[in-house]
Predict the structure of Major facilitator superfamily (MFS) profile domain-containing protein.
Amino acid sequence: MMPDATAGSPDEHRIKSGHAAFAHADFRYYWLARILGALAIDMKITAVGWQVYTMTGRPFDLGLVGLVQIVPFFLLFPLAGIAADRLPRKRVLAVCICVQAVCAITFCSLTVTGVITFPFMLLILTVFGTARAFQNPTQQAIVPGLVPSSAFSNALAWNAMANQAARIAGPGIAGVMIMAGEAWVYGAVGVLLLVASILTFRIRAQTHITIHTPLSFGSVFAGFQFIWHRPSLLGAISLDLFAVLLGGATALLPIYAKDILQVGPWGFGLLRGAHMLGACSGALYFTQRPIQRHAGYKLLAGVGIFGFSIVIFGLSTWCRDT
């Protein structure tokens, strides 16, 4: 049970100022771990994309980098959902972050010693993707146990803002660090993830919900069945899924930065982070004014603007250095 804020206390001020979720210490630990972890992941993505394209010069290899990280999501999502429902969420989350920290440190070591190869990178990224496949559902499922229901929507909004803010800052930081070498980025990523894991372990709330129903084949796909029988939820998820799958222009940014716009690693970092500036602004706006009506129409409008923006970016060559 979450304690109520007393009158005139700092926690009461947080609640009235749109910071209700931060009145709870466990959420503060979680939120800080979330923003550090998201920052680390986007730094890693930026460094890997630049390193792979510099190493091989083949656009197809950039596609493979994304493929080996997304395939575990599709193959393991039933098991990941079960883990989020039936295992202690704090431990699952912390272990997943630790595994990614080890992967980042391995990247750093192989890069420093000069023995890193593209197949090695794909193997490590597959482990990264597997850890992320278990982390993502657990990371979402743990939030209701950290705050009371009255602060849940506020927690989700701040959660989204943390993710978007990290996705703005991470690529820019990585772009600057890449000029000194990708190994510096991977080392920093490893440290950030280790700190995020420690913060996650500090969560004290009971995040494990005991489920008495036996595990069965049907329970593995219970989440899919839940979504399938709710057309509005299925439509929203499908729209977002296909927009991301068919509009993944960010995978091609190393090519644009290096060959088309010729802006170098720093410019590449700015390109990767710039499109998230609007997303962070939107998330911050929704912490104060959550959507109450016409959510479907607003989602369609957002996806339409997203697609139009990708087309415009695809035609851009005018910021090339002369």
